[in-house]
DNA-binding transcriptional regulator, LacI/PurR family (Poseidonocella sedimentorum), 670 residues
Amino acid sequence: MDEFAAMSGISRPTLSKYFNDPTSVRSSTRQRIESALADVDYRPNMYAINQNRRMTNNIGIVVPYLADPFFAEIARVMEQHVIDAGFRPVLLGSHGLPSQEIENLDNLRLVKPAGVLLAPLGRTSELDRIADFCADVPTVFFDANIEPLGEAFSGSDNMQSIGLIVDYLCRTGEPPVFFEMKTPSNPNAYKRRNAYVAAMERLGQEPHLVQVEGEGWDFENIGFTGAQAVLSSRGLPSNTLLCSNDRLAIGLLAAAYQLGFRVGQGEGCALRVAGHDDHPFSRYTCPALTTVSQDYSAIATRAAEVLFGIIESGHRPDQKLESHFEGRLIMRGSA
Amino acid sequence: MDEFAAMSGISRPTLSKYFNDPTSVRSSTRQRIESALADVDYRPNMYAINQNRRMTNNIGIVVPYLADPFFAEIARVMEQHVIDAGFRPVLLGSHGLPSQEIENLDNLRLVKPAGVLLAPLGRTSELDRIADFCADVPTVFFDANIEPLGEAFSGSDNMQSIGLIVDYLCRTGEPPVFFEMKTPSNPNAYKRRNAYVAAMERLGQEPHLVQVEGEGWDFENIGFTGAQAVLSSRGLPSNTLLCSNDRLAIGLLAAAYQLGFRVGQGEGCALRVAGHDDHPFSRYTCPALTTVSQDYSAIATRAAEVLFGIIESGHRPDQKLESHFEGRLIMRGSA
DNA sequence: TAAAAAAATTAACGCGCGTAAAAAATAAAT
DNA sequence: ATTTATTTTTTACGCGCGTTAATTTTTTTA
């Protein structure tokens, strides 16, 4: 930067101001800088900047599992919002590991972010460590909430969305059984289970839970092997299965196909299967998966909006703001 | 670090040595440091370290598209190898954008990596910028090669793997038509096309290419819409389709299902479909996808091995080392 | 055109660490 | 108990930038 200052004839503090915010210098000097920039390709070192600024324009985005297309997609949407607002996204995935989640937060600290958007692992998260982090850095949760922590939450209204699909399934056929993991990794699983039970009771139906074994984030495989056992035992009280999420449903559909169960609403179908999330791949299952979509865009927009508001105003809200967005029924072939 | 030096009674340069390599200090001092570390949780600032060390133990990993489970998976394997070798992985995805790929390399420069493992976008990559980077940082390519660049390449032997599945398909039924994108994003697509043509000619069969429209990385959708057109026109010279990659096949299978084509090898099946890659989801298609696997682990191991060798020896090889690993036939239901 | 306001420059310090050289302390070898 | 080899400490500088305060220059306003 010293060299560039020498060759451009602009003092280093002015350059520093310019790179922080180009509009903060007189337009004539800005032009001088930009024409010098056209000759040599100088770019300030991001890490040296991070080290010195009290606060940067970095915004951390942390998701539980980047290899899950659902999180990859919502992270992508988040990133775009952050860029559009003039901030710099720093995307990190936790590989489903609580230790990695803490590691990510520790690494984020070093970047001195203006704020972070955090989709926590949930059940397995190390709450006290996350609480420490939230005390230092403005944090907005999305996808999954950790009740007392953070400035805000933006996510789906599981009660509404599960209610929606339960209503639909009951209206158009046998009431659904709920297909889920016994000890779910997914943080929304318990809410969905409760929402299912509530919806069934509201409709005067008896809820049934089918809980399959399995650990980790390989949901398709867990759904597949779980479904093999459940379907071949033929002990199901209903021909309709509502899965806690689409990835379980994808595994279930594969098992059903291999066992010769015909899935769908029409005549001659032995099974109806529905999911939740509108996972990027749910369009391509056979039959295509009936599910309820999460409003990715609204969730991302609200989370980003709230965080930007906090950053610009400079002080945190007294009360945690919670936004729950409704899901939409996506009717396809499977139910 | 100064504070920690004061409280632990160890001088800062010694601490600096310790954090760089714990075995480089006398074991008695190491114990003193570690017991002090147990009291206060001090950790050196990674970015300050990167700024000052001539070279770090960071290793960059760049893939074309992190939201593609195939790359997410191979990146995960790479990361693990890097960690096991005592280095620190820095994972970056290019979102399918050449500009992002360059941006990633520019950002990596700031971290002063000991080396980088690069899966390039291929066709659309900005070659001269990548060449600049390779001149400065030891780079090993994987998945896709850029002929004259980098110290080494580790990837699949497309000629062998496509040959394998073409052989299989010809042996067990009608010779396959090759289903691909007209202007593929995937860097291996051209090699696979050529391998298909070569394999067919070797077997005395006439090659047929079905090239569908579409840009970008939403391969399932491109396969789906392309297949709808192709299948309903019924102008196929064969009942067997070999897809350039599994994601196209996933879209194709969904289209076939919706149009009522029965896919598989048995009696009453109208279509056979095969893919390439053994994509994480290919087990869960209906029917499960017959494909040829890439040896993720071997590819990752070799790429990492070669890079570590270069880093440790301190000088680059005179000649580029190219490793091509054979694929394995994964026989499932679809062909 | 002089005074006031805004912007840029100079000079100097700080961030959190790496690193080099010389001096001092400790351990190993004789 | 010496000598020698190995570690550690002291001292000081550097990395690439942010930031502040005092000063000078430029622009705006009256």
Observations:
- Residues 10-14, 17, 25-26, 29, 48, 51-52 of chain A lie near DNA strand C (CB under 10 Å from a C1').
- The first helix of chain A runs from residue 2 to 8.
- Residues 58-155+296-326 of chain A form a domain with the Rossmann fold fold (CATH 3.40.50.2300).
- Chain A is about 45% helix and 15% strand.
